[in-house]
Write a structure and sequence with these properties.
The structure is a single chain. With 328 residues, the chain is an all-alpha fold. The protein contains 13 helices and no strands. The longest helix has 40 residues. The N and C termini lie far apart (95 Å).
Length: 328
């Protein structure tokens, strides 16, 4: 019972992170199961089965809070499902260990770019533009395959790519990615069911992760709506950098004092980016407030003043009040 309660707490925290940042549910949950000695295929299968329920709840919550771009969802979900099904059915025969450092390097670069981008005032001239299907399709295919074979990865691959495009608000990126993940998780579960059978799913673990995730889903959807895009983007960038730095450090076999020093430098960089993001957010809000105040207090000439003399020949009120002679 204690183990199940811990798993439920992990599911709650993982969904809270995933729903507010668009990633990390699968990575967090799968990591715990692997540490506990669960086989990689069984861990990924159990996590994806639980994600069917958590992503459904998250998708509904994000939809209710207006965080979903359905055009993006429809164009990324189907390729993602195809990639997830393929990854699930071949997990036992294909290893992603060799590709992990390369993928971590790409994600690390994207995360660093996000830190730099959101540490400065945001440009909104591109927000609202259309993302083409030839970009969304391959992105969903790759993200779905990585997600199924690695026990997680849909969010870490799809969310940074959409954020870097600059054509969607961060909250809509996260809401759309979480909503599309429902289809991806379902396709991966079908693939695992074909490849492993029902014995490949750890049902008590699935139930515990599901309960925690269902509790956190509405709260995460509300949180992503109220958190400013400036801070949200910087937070996502830091999570991506630190998460993938761990893989890169292990691949480089860095030991001794190099590892903690590297983590400390990355943490300091993340903190600096958050501070700069807060300052940029304050400057932006101050500029908007000043612009709104100027617009409200700027005098608007009355129609009578513009016309000079009314239909009955009366002088404008301001001329009479100041003692200026009435025009003839």
């Amino acid at each position: 019972m204690r183990k199940l309660l811990v798993l439920a707490l992990v599911g709650l925290v993982a969904q809270l992170i995933d729903g507010s940042l668009g990633m990390a549910y699968g990575l967090t949950s799968s990591t715990l199961l692997l540490v506990a000695g669960v086989a990689p295929a069984a861990a990924s299968a159990s996590v994806h089965l639980a994600e069917i329920g958590t992503t459904l709840a998250a998708g509904v919550a994000h939809w209710r809070f207006g965080n979903v771009d359905w055009r993006v969802v429809t164009r990324i979900a189907l390729p993602g499902a195809i990639g997830a099904f393929a990854g699930a059915t071949v997990l036992s025969s294909i290893s992603t260990e060799a590709a992990a450092p390369w993928m971590a390097g790409i994600l690390f670069t994207l995360g660093a770019y996000l830190l730099v981008r959101f540490a400065r005032p945001l440009r909104t001239d591109r927000v609202g533009g259309r993302l083409r299907g030839r970009f969304l399709g391959p992105l969903g295919l790759v993200a779905g395959f990585v997600d199924a074979t690695g026990g997680g990865g849909w969010g870490p691959v799809a969310t940074p790519a959409l954020l870097v495009s600059g054509r969607m608000e961060p909250r809509k990126v996260i809401g759309s990615v979480d909503t599309a993940e429902f289809v991806v998780a379902g396709a991966a579960s079908v693939g695992f069911l074909i490849g492993l059978g029902t014995e490949g799913f750890l049902l008590p673990t699935v139930a515990a992760l599901l309960v925690g995730g269902l509790i956190a889903a509405p709260l995460a959807a509300w949180l992503v709506r109220i958190v400013p895009a400036q801070l949200l983007g910087a937070a996502v960038g830091g999570v991506i950098v630190l998460t993938n730095a761990r893989t890169l450090i292990r691949s480089a076999e860095l030991d001794g004092p190099v590892r903690p020093i590297t983590y400390a430098l990355l943490a300091v960089g993340w903190l600096a980016a958050l501070v700069l993001a807060v300052r940029a957010l304050r400057r932006t809000r101050r500029a908007r407030a000043e612009a709104a105040k100027a617009a409200n207090v700027s005098p608007v000439p009355a129609p009578a003043a513009l016309a000079g003399v009314g239909a009955a020949g009366a002088a404008p009120a301001e001329l009479t009040q100041t003692g200026t002679p009435n025009p003839r």
